[in-house]
C-alpha cells in the first residue's frame, strides 16, 4: 500500500488506484501473514508511511486533501474489513475446537454403544444336548437394532428371542437393549412364547414411543424335541429337513409396540434328527440385486436351498457371503441369522 501511495502522488486516478491498493492490502496481506492479530498494526504502519509521503512530497500531481481523505476512509474500511475477518477466523477456529470435542464425544459414545451391541447378539450358546446353535451378525453401522438372546430355564427349556428394532444406529440399539432387558426379566416367568411376547410388549409400551420391534419367541423342549414359537410381526422362519427341503414355519402376530394390545398365538412343531431351524432378519432379503430387481423373501429361500448341503457355521457364513455378493450397492440393513440344528 505504501508503494502504491507514492505512485498516487504523481498520477491522477486517485479513487480507482486507491481502491485497487485497498484490495491488495485486505487480501494479499491477509494471505501472507499467518497471525491475523498483526494485520491491523501492519496496515496502520502502511497508512502512516503514506501520510509521511503526503506531507513531505513537493508539488504533488493530485489534490492532497482528496489524497488524505481517500487514505483515511480507505484505512478505516480496511481496519473494519480485517477486524471482521479476524472475528470470522476466530469463530471458525472455535467451531473447529467444538467439532473436535464433538467428534471425541461421538467416538466415546460409539465405543459404549459397541459394547452394548455385543450384549445384544449372542455369539455363544449354552450346551443343549443333541442340539447345536449358531448365529451370524453383520450390523449396517457400528451398532444396530437386531438382537438374539437366549435363556435357559429351570426345567431345561431353552428360550430364544430373535428381534429387529426399526431403524439403525445408536437409537435402534438402545431400543433393542431395553427389549433384551425385558426378555431377561420375563423369560423365567413366561408360561408360553406368546405370553412372553405379550409381557415384553406391555413392559416396553410404557417406556418406548415411536419405535417398532418385530420378533420371534421360540421355546425348545430338549427332552420332547418340540419347538413352540410365536411371532410379533416377523416374517416366517424356515425349517430345513434332513433331505434338504425348505419349508416355512407359518404363523402370524402383530408388531411389538404398534398397537396398545398384542395379538398373537403359539405354534408348535416336533423336530427330528437332521432338522434345522433358520431365523433371519429382513436385511437378508430386502435389497436390490440390480438397480431395479428386488431380491425378496422367496429368492432368499431359493438361495437357502442351494446351501443345504452345508451345516453349522459354515452354512451361515457361506449364505451370508452369497447375500453380500448379490447386493448391487452396500447393504442398507443389519444382516442377522440364527441356526438351530438337531443332531
From TrEMBL:
The keyword Signal does not apply. Pfam families: SpoIIE. Residues 128-342 form the PPM-type phosphatase domain. The chain crosses the membrane at residues 6-26, 38-55, 67-84, 160-183, 203-220. It comes from the Bacteria. Keywords: Hydrolase, Membrane, Transmembrane, Transmembrane helix. SMART domains: PP2C_SIG. GO terms for molecular function: phosphatase activity. This is Stage II sporulation protein E.
